[in-house]
From TrEMBL:
This is serine C-palmitoyltransferase. Pfam families: Aminotran_1_2. It catalyses: L-serine + hexadecanoyl-CoA + H(+) = 3-oxosphinganine + CO2 + CoA. The chain crosses the membrane at residues 21-40. It is an enzyme of class 2 (transferase). Residues 120-494 form the Aminotransferase class I/classII large domain. It comes from the Eukaryota. One of its GO terms (biological process) is ceramide biosynthetic process. Keywords: Membrane, Pyridoxal phosphate, Transferase, Transmembrane, Transmembrane helix.
């Protein structure tokens, strides 16, 4: 099985790709048409049906509750796609997921449940290592802990909310990451948005990747520090921003910055790209800034031991000043963490709003975290008597532990889906080892059709993402691979995507990953060979291992 680790040959084989001018033109025209029709409907509706627009206009002495302009996109554009979003589900979001069927008679403004359930293949959830289960070691450990400790933590960590489970989980997490100490916070978004204000303030500088998550941006604005951005994962542009920022300092005050933090993500959730950590560390040594690394998606999903991008690149985690991550995606739980030096963590325990004011995590959630983390790390569980409860865990995979098996399955599935889609002719950005595999669709109408057809024809649930979560010309499907997916599941996704992509005209790639010695047989489509779906499925191992240099 493949192991997730940095491979320069794999990086070199990824040819850059993009859409053509016709694609961009039609995408802009699609949004322009939607905006034009929406504004016409608003103008007519406000005059003919004023009661339907009361919340958007001043009435009876009250100000408008919602901004007409601010809510326009949600009301007139996103509402057309609402059957593809917020789909109600029941049961655990594992390999498959159960959807509560619904229908709409007014163009997705209101939905009505049909009292039926559709079971579909789930390639939409952040369930990287497959720990979102209702049975197995983790689930049984959580069940026992609920009976023992209940579900309420008792308060914040600064009062009476620090239980023995919290202390054990934080020690285990620090050991797992290879750093001195860690603090667990009850929500991932709040981890970023309250940690940055505790570290920097006015007179400080935050340099942020242009594609950083909203929680980092929100925390940066909340801190009062100056914020500057650089081009996504571009170390040359980051160096330019650093040079200019340091040389000019605080322009109005004519003095240098109190401190500089560069904030990045380990794995970007919309792009599927992995941060250039070695390049960042070289710049850190040169310019002496603090490095803030958000591993919300990379922890547990990258590296031969599942310890994130430091493990992936073989870098000492102590070279990163502030390690942030979430305990949701790979661990099947909730919450976030900050890890690093003991001085850093002690400071955050006193200064972070999430530590002082927010409720601590439930003991049952902490049990899920520690149990799954021990399985990933290959440590013995406190009680091995439950191993027989999960038949899958009893399989002998040549002395590999359950955690290693999950990590290797995830790495194989990620590379197979990514390489397979590129070989079929789709535009697939991001890195081969990323469990997030985006497929560029561009036009909003095609996003809608792709999601509906995948569910209706193949019973596959996917996530579609468009503006404003992405640039207006970069609407995409986002596949989220899991260790619980089998090769047959990935085959099914490739077959469905191939058929629907051909129907919607989504095969726009100019390049194909794989053997560079082969010339393209598709006229005008670049330098490499594109394969038929049958060949992709039959040569899956070649697609995955072709990039290995060992």
């Amino acid at each position: 099985l493949w192991s997730s680790k940095f491979n320069s040959k794999s990086k070199a084989n990824l040819c850059p790709d993009d859409g053509n001018y016709r694609t961009y033109l039609t995408t802009y025209f699609s949004y322009l048409l939607l905006f034009l029709i929406g504004h016409v409907r608003d103008a007519i509706g406000k005059r003919l049906f004023p009661k339907d627009y009361e919340q958007l206009m001043p009435h009876n002495g009250y100000a408008a509750l919602n901004s007409d302009f601010g809510s326009f996109f949600t009301r007139r554009v996103k509402s057309k796609l609402d059957d593809c979003f917020s789909r109600p589900v029941t049961g655990p979001p594992g390999r498959t997921i159960k959807l509560l069927d619904r229908t709409s008679l007014d163009y997705c403004f209101n939905f009505k449940f049909t009292h039926t359930i559709t079971q579909a293949l789930n390639i939409a959830s952040y369930n990287y290592l497959g720990f979102a289960q209702s049975r197995g070691r983790c689930a049984h450990a959580v069940e026992r802990d609920i009976l023992k400790s209940g579900v309420f933590s008792g308060g914040s960590g600064a009062t009476v909310g620090l239980m023995t489970q919290h202390v054990k989980a934080e020690k285990l997490l620090a050991s797992f990451l290879g750093v001195q100490d860690s603090i667990i916070i009850s929500q991932g978004f709040a981890t970023n948005s309250t940690t940055l204000p505790a570290l920097v303030g006015p007179g400080c500088l935050i340099i942020s990747d242009e594609l950083n998550h909203a929680s980092i941006r929100f925390g940066a604005r909340l801190s009062g520090a100056m914020v500057r951005t650089y081009k996504h994962n571009n170390m040359r542009d980051l160096e330019r921003v650093l040079r200019n920022s340091i040389s000019h300092g605080q322009t109005r005050k004519l003095r240098g910055w109190k401190k500089i933090i560069v904030a990045v993500e380990g794995l970007y959730s919309m792009e599927g790209s992995i941060v250039d950590l070695p390049g960042l560390l070289r710049l850190r040594e040169k310019f002496k800034f603090y490095l803030y690394l958000d591993e919300a998606h990379s922890i547990g999903a990258l590296g031969p031991n599942g310890r994130g991008v430091c493990d992936y690149y073989g870098v000492d985690p102590n070279r990163v000043d502030i390690l942030m991550g979430t305990l949701t995606k790979s661990f099947g739980a909730s919450g976030g963490y900050i890890a690093g030096s003991k001085l850093l963590i002690d400071h955050l325990r006193r200064k972070s709003h999430s530590s002082v004011y927010a409720e601590s995590l439930s003991p049952a959630v902490l049990t899920q975290i520690t149990t799954s983390m021990k399985l990933i790390a290959g440590k013995d569980l406190d009680d091995q008597s439950n191993a027989s409860n999960n038949a899958e865990n009893n399989k002998d995979h040549r002395s590999l532990g359950e955690g290693q098996i999950r990590l290797k399955r995830l790495a194989f599935n990620s590379r197979y889906l990514h390489a397979g889609l590129k070989k079929l002719g789709f535009i697939v950005p991001g890195d081969m080892d990323s469990p997030i595999v985006p497929l560029l669709v561009f036009q909003p109408g095609k996003l809608l059709l792709f999601s509906r057809l995948m569910l209706q024809r193949y019973s596959i649930v996917v996530v579609v993402v468009g503006y404003p979560a992405t640039p207006i010309v970069s609407g995409r499907v986002r596949f989220c691979v899991s260790a619980c997916h089998t090769k047959e599941d990935i085959d099914k996704v490739l077959i469905a995507t191939d058929e629907i992509g051909e129907m919607l005209g989504l095969k726009l790639a100019k390049y194909s990953s794989g053997n560079q010695s082969s010339k393209s047989t598709r006229k005008g489509k670049g330098c490499f060979t594109f394969w038929k779906i049958e060949e992709v499925i039959s040569r899956a191992r070649e697609l995955v291992y072709d990039y290995q240099i060992d």
